[in-house]
Design goal:
heterodimer; A: alpha/beta; Methyltransferase, Methionine Synthase (B12-binding Domains), Chain A, domain 1; Rossmann fold; 2 domains; five-stranded parallel sheet; 5 strands; 11% strand; globular; B: alpha/beta; TIM Barrel; seven-stranded parallel sheet
Chain lengths: 217, 312
């Protein structure tokens, strides 16, 4: 039986090396070794994606590599998820996710969804090109804590401002995070968003921060 | 206004001033008080809109349209229309890993998709723009972005996992590009540009294998027609700048995220014209940076050798 640290490294390396079969195999080793699957998720797969995020920021990895790494992470998750204990699936919060109306780009948003799910959030993904009305309906239906919205284009990004305004008016206790290629922290401030993540690697930390801030307000 | 100056700059020659090339498209609809969807489906409105924008902005060049959905729609992709934006591509026929050839997708003709509207718009607009000494620029969706329209997001992982399929889709995209280039050349566009924003999202080796070969057919058509070629790329393309400079077009245009001084040095080293770098978001859209100040920064950085002032 391999030591836990070694298996976690295998998981990490499989994600970074976009090795789906390797990730699934390492995940099975973890289960067969009697280790906590949550350990594998948080300190194997998730740290692997943190490394991927860093490589993306350094422009060593690009969209194709990040997607392949996400697929490897998913392959590991598929093995580990059924073994998670009910207590370890307690959610940190509920977030509604979507790409702003008019924008069909969702690669980044899909990776963000995976990271948030791994990070312990209950994610309601509305997909791409989501009208404000649909965000509002889902907010009413789920009583979510957070809304996460992305845009790939400058033109569609402008729609975020009115979406944030709509959330402020109807659900002032809900935190809003924004992200996407044309979005910056400065723009997030201008649009009165509560949070901003410039990559999927940062989103879980930012979501936690915004939740804490909104709850204490 | 001077189309000759624009062409000279794009061919990396010195000019008395930096020519000005605003990428107005939906903005033209706004100038006419029209919605984007109505505007883009009416040739008279498009011709009226580009003329109005060329006059108002005193442009040396103006695109007939700046809309990357045209090529995808012409081969069968459905579109979603918006009142305040260009249409988005709603369907991806090759998404189940069925190649264009297997699907029986046909190359566009002048009757395909929105080409009848654009060709009529170009026919109406050209003499009006000539009267203003403003170049009419034809812009078409580059092969990688078109491949992503045809195959969806999967194309990115197909570069690794299903390379044969990826190449098949790109070969078809290259043929479609050549058709677009020919249409714009026939309209008399002095400048024809390949717009491939997705190309900034891949590493240089992927660019060299999956972008560079597939723009060549279109470039050949542009050059055979005597027009000036341009490669427009959005996003942070720092890591593929070398590939952009050597792709084979006479000029290129980059995103506001890039440092124009660095871009200038690269462009001049490779003897290609370059366009940029007004900040679309912080300056033109949101006014966080005063547009005049932003323009001055670009003009100083760009100089008057091979430089065209344009949005980033």
């Amino acid at each position: 039986m391999l030591p836990l640290e070694e298996i976690l490294k295998k998981l990490h390396d499989a994600v970074v090396g976009f090795d789906e079969a390797g990730a699934a195999q390492a995940a099975r080793l973890l289960i067969e070794g009697g280790y906590d699957p949550l350990e594998g998720i948080m300190h194997g797969l998730s740290t692997g994606m943190d490394t991927v995020g860093a490589l993306f920021k350094q422009q060593e990895y690009f969209v194709p590599e990040v997607l392949l790494c996400a697929e490897a992470m998913n392959a590991g998750m598929e093995v580990l998820r059924p073994h998670l204990q009910a207590s370890s699936t307690r959610t940190l919060g509920t977030i509604i996710l979507g790409t702003v109306q008019g924008d069909v780009h969702d690669i980044g948003k899909n990776i963000v969804r995976m990271m948030l799910e791994i990070g312990g959030f209950d994610v309601h993904d509305l997909g791409n090109n989501v009208p404000h009305k649909k965000f509002a309906e889902e907010l009413a239906r789920t009583d979510a804590d957070l809304v996460g919205v992305s845009a790939m284009m400058t033109t569609t990004m402008m729609g975020m401002r009115s979406l944030i305004g709509m959330v402020r008016e109807t659900k002032p206790h809900v935190g809003v995070l924004i992200g996407g290629a044309p979005v910056t922290r400065e723009i997030a401030k201008m649009f009165n968003a509560d949070g901003y993540a410039d990559s999927a690697a940062d989103v879980v930390g930012e979501a936690k921060r915004v939740m804490a801030a909104v709850k204490s307000a | 206004m001077s189309k000759k100056m624009l062409i000279e700059a794009l061919r990396c020659n010195r000019t008395p001033r930096a020519p000005w090339f605003p990428y107005a498209c939906i903005n033209c609809a706004y100038l006419l008080g029209e919605t984007a969807d109505r505007y883009l489906q009416d040739p008279e409105l498009i011709a009226k809109g580009v003329e109005a924008a060329a006059k108002r902005y005193r442009a040396d060049g103006i695109p007939l349209v700046f809309d990357l959905s045209v090529e995808a729609n012409a081969v069968g992709c459905e579109l979603s229309w918006w009142p305040d934006n260009v249409p988005s591509v709603a369907t991806h026929p090759c998404a189940q890993m069925v190649s264009p050839r297997q699907l029986g997708l046909k190359l566009p003709t002048k009757d395909s998709g929105r080409w009848p509207v654009l060709l009529e718009a170009g026919r109406l607009a050209k003499p009006r723009l000539d009267a203003l000494d403003c170049a009419m620029v034809g812009l078409y969706c580059g092969p990688l972005t078109l491949a992503s329209h045809l195959a969806g997001v999967r194309i990115f992982t197909d570069f690794y996992k299903n390379q044969e399929f990826a190449h098949e889709v790109l070969e078809f995209a290259a043929e479609v590009n050549a058709v677009s280039a020919a249409f714009y050349a026939e309209l008399g566009c002095e400048v024809i540009g390949i717009v491939d924003p997705v190309a900034s999202q891949v590493k240089s080796a992927t660019f060299r294998e999956f972008v560079t070969p597939y723009v060549q057919k279109g470039i050949q058509v542009i050059h055979d027609a005597g027009a000036t070629s341009m490669f427009l790329i959005c996003g942070d393309c720092t890591k593929v700048m070398e590939e952009v400079c050597t792709i084979g077009t006479q000029s290129f245009a980059i995103d506001e995220q890039l440092n124009l001084g660095y871009v200038r040095d690269m462009a001049l080293r490779h003897r290609v014209g370059f366009a940029g770098n007004l900040k679309l978001t912080l300056s033109l859209s949101l006014g966080v940076i005063p547009p005049r100040e932003d323009a001055l920064v670009s003009l100083v950085a760009g100089g008057t050798h091979g430089f065209v002032l344009a949005p980033g």
